[in-house]
């Protein structure tokens, strides 16, 4: 996103968080807001003129918000409409970035619903596991990435795979990713898992180890990394036997390679 859109999204996110904080039926309100924001994105995807008009910075914020109210008023809840009018009043660099911002707000609303149900850690873990499943199941990933298939068909395929196996919020988020991915669906799932960790006040450490870590090892690693980076850590772990031993840890752009294969490669390079 361009700078203006990043600021717009930050402003809209603060408004959304304030709107969804507590209150009666907080879980249901947050979940419905997220779902309705996804529905609005579908409408904007199918109506270029509306999408452009809502992000038209030559119009006043009041005019853009008024347009949103005229189109969606009475069709979504008051909470969703308040989120939409606030987003429309912001300055977005392009209509495409406004659309992307609404997707992010919808996702955050659903993650807030999970948080209010004390299920955010579960949703985070399930989203990360889904990203690893998609990375490993090439045939499924190809089917979900088929450009000739409709978003509805892709969602139905994934819904059949996920049925009864994940939290309902995880399923809703995953189906949105598959129907309208912001990037590679595998990365999109992983980014959503990281967003869930962030709401929990944690940074993500991607850990690839030669053998699976047990719960005690993961906790010890999280504590050690937390001391290094000065922030509580969420461990997203997977196994790669080709490492031969040890592990590779990535936090943001920083990579710590303590694997046996990495050590051998560095030794080989040094000898050459």
UniProtKB/TrEMBL annotation:
Residues 106-133 form a coiled coil. InterPro entries: ATP_synth_OSCP/delta_N_sf, ATPase_OSCP/d_CS, ATPase_OSCP/dsu. One of its GO terms (cellular component) is proton-transporting ATP synthase complex. Keywords: ATP synthesis, Cell membrane, CF(1), Coiled coil, Hydrogen ion transport, Ion transport, Membrane, Transport. Its main location: membrane. One of its GO terms (molecular function) is proton-transporting ATP synthase activity, rotational mechanism. The keyword Ion transport applies. PROSITE patterns: ATPASE_DELTA. It is found in: Cell membrane; Membrane. It is a peripheral membrane protein. Belongs to the ATPase delta chain family. F(1)F(0) ATP synthase produces ATP from ADP in the presence of a proton or sodium gradient. F-type ATPases consist of two structural domains, F(1) containing the extramembraneous catalytic core and F(0) containing the membrane proton channel, linked together by a central stalk and a peripheral stalk. During catalysis, ATP synthesis in the catalytic domain of F(1) is coupled via a rotary mechanism of the central stalk subunits to proton translocation. This protein is part of the stalk that links CF(0) to CF(1). It either transmits conformational changes from CF(0) to CF(1) or is implicated in proton conduction. PANTHER family: ATP SYNTHASE DELTA CHAIN (PTHR11910). HAMAP family: ATP_synth_delta_bact (MF_01416). This is ATP synthase subunit delta. It comes from Corynebacterium canis. The lineage of its organism: Bacteria, Bacillati, Actinomycetota, Actinomycetes, Mycobacteriales.
